[in-house]
Amino acid sequence: MKNEIPVFFAIDNNFAPYLAVALNSAVKNSSKERNYRAIVLHENVSEENIKKLKAFETDNFKIDITPMSANFKMLDDRMSNRLRCDYFTLTIYFRLFIPAMFPQYDKGIYIDSDIVVAGDLANLFDTDIGDNYIGACRDLSIADVPPLVAYTENAVGVKGDEYINSGVLLMNLKKLRELDFEGHFLNLLNTYHFDSIAPDQDYINAICNGKIFYLDESWDTMPNNERPLLENPNIIHYNLFEKPWCYDNVQYEDEFWKYAKTCGFIDEIKAFKAAYDDNKKAADKECLELLVNRGISIPKEDVTFKKLHEKGVKIRL
Prior knowledge:
It is built from 14 helices and nine strands. It has 317 residues and is of the alpha/beta class. β1, α1 and β2 form a beta-alpha-beta unit. The mean pLDDT is 92.
């Protein structure tokens, strides 16, 4: 366990095909000299899909697939029933509970499942982030959207060039446990229920700002037509609506299809894309407009991370 690299994911049954692509790429680009363990917490994933995901397991890349509810129950028991929010609310914030859920690890990687791992995760794990709480990349998906940059500064209270994307996190689990990170988060959540456009991400930014190690952007490379392609991305993150299983001509789409071909779900993925019609694309556009509009309105509310921080409420750890 001491020399093991834990990599955390969370999915429901609909996302199993895309996690299969992620796992396929991660295993293929892993070192034979290191030991990895993918820990997949899931909601209602079928036995058939679990079997297909487990098929990627190798001697040095283990894959554990367990129900999220069981892990939250263990967490609830240990934390003296501090989880006053309903279970479905908490699953949104899964990555924030990793330190408390997995006390056997001092360090770990969390990754969203809409990704391709083109490099070796051992190189990410080996990054020295000092006494910072997390390592993460600046969120370049919003950097070219002025209303969202204004939102990070005026609602979350974090400078635009310091706001990170929470889709790839190198976590100092030991330090976060020592600081009672999840207790602080739950206190904020239960007391204020901050309105936000990216719930877990905004809490992470607000709480950890000033104690974040900024990773090279190759570890959270997001398609963005406003920016040139990176030559050697380590992790490609098909964030928001830039997903090659929905749209054509997405940056880095060749990398996705390379691993999708042998992921065991290629027929399902192709069928999903074929059915992604104009109505669904129009709905995506409406969602993006709603996101931007909420980003404009939330800073005007009385209760924001920034306003409470300025009043002396302890937001940052």
